[in-house]
Each structure stands twice: as C-alpha cells, then as structure tokens.
Write a structure and sequence with these properties.
single chain; about 140 residues; alpha/beta; five-stranded mixed β-sheet; about 20% strand
Length: about 140
C-alpha cells in the first residue's frame, strides 16, 4: 500500500468518499513533494515520459475523448486506485480535460451528474470544465 496525497496539497480534489485525486497541468513544473504512483494523461498526442505508471487517453484540447470506452475504463481505474495510491489526472493546462475527468470521477463517487461540474469547480478550480460539450459529457457519463 502506498500513501495517498496530502489533502491540502495544491490540485488535490477530495471526493465525497474521501478518495484523493490530484489534477494538474503538464505545462507547469511538477509540484514539489511526492510523485504520483499512477497518472492519466489526457492529451491529443503522446505524453512526455514519466518514471511512474501512467496511461494515455487521446483527448485533444477543448474536445472530448477519442474513445469513450477507453476513457471510462481508465477513469474507473483511477477511482479504484485512489483510496490507496497517489493518483493524478493531467492535461496541458489542468482545467478543461482534467476538470472534466475529475467531474466524471465525482459521478463515479456518487455525486449526481447534474452537480458534478459545480462540485469540481468548488473543490478543485473555479474554471474547470471549459466547454459546453465537456459539461454535456459529464452529464452523460453515467450512461456511456
């Protein structure tokens, strides 16, 4: 078992179940402190190499995942690993795609889909989930 994130660390979202997930932008330097044990990179092209375990979901900037099933599968993996590991979700800027993925994790954690974007904006970043189609994706996530 690995330790999870410090709840007060930058970018860490606490889901209602107590699971901690860090969101971040890959264009910014890696935050100080412990490294993730598992990360999901939401990018249009291959991510930079990292020394920890990671998955890539092809997800172009300001868009939606290229493969809904792959995205759903990896987000379920993030959710299942979060109680015992330092899991991270990251895109280029850390707001749109990352916020959308965090809102989907909130849905998996029991937050009603209609409230998930507000939950992430309140608890992660006020500008998370940037486009109308990203908001719709969260609303439909439970049924994907």
């Amino acid at each position: 078992m690995t330790e999870t994130w410090e709840p007060s660390a930058g970018g860490v979202l606490r889901l209602p179940s107590g699971r901690l997930v860090r969101g971040r932008g890959l264009r910014r330097p890696l935050p100080e402190g412990p490294e993730p044990t598992f990360a999901v990179h939401l990018l249009g092209g291959p991510p930079p190499p990292v020394v920890w375990e990671s998955r890539w979901v092809r997800w172009p900037d300001f868009r939606l995942p290229a493969d809904n099933e792959a995205a759903r599968s990896v987000l379920r993996e993030v959710w299942s690993r979060a109680p015992d590991e330092r899991v991270e979700v990251a895109c280029g800027g850390g707001r749109g795609r990352t916020g959308t993925a965090l809102a989907c994790l909130a849905v998996l954690d029991g937050v009603p889909a209609a409230e998930a974007v507000a939950y992430v904006r309140r608890n992660y970043h006020p500008k998370a989930v940037e486009t109308p189609w990203q908001r719709r994706y969260v609303m439909r996530f439970a049924g994907i």
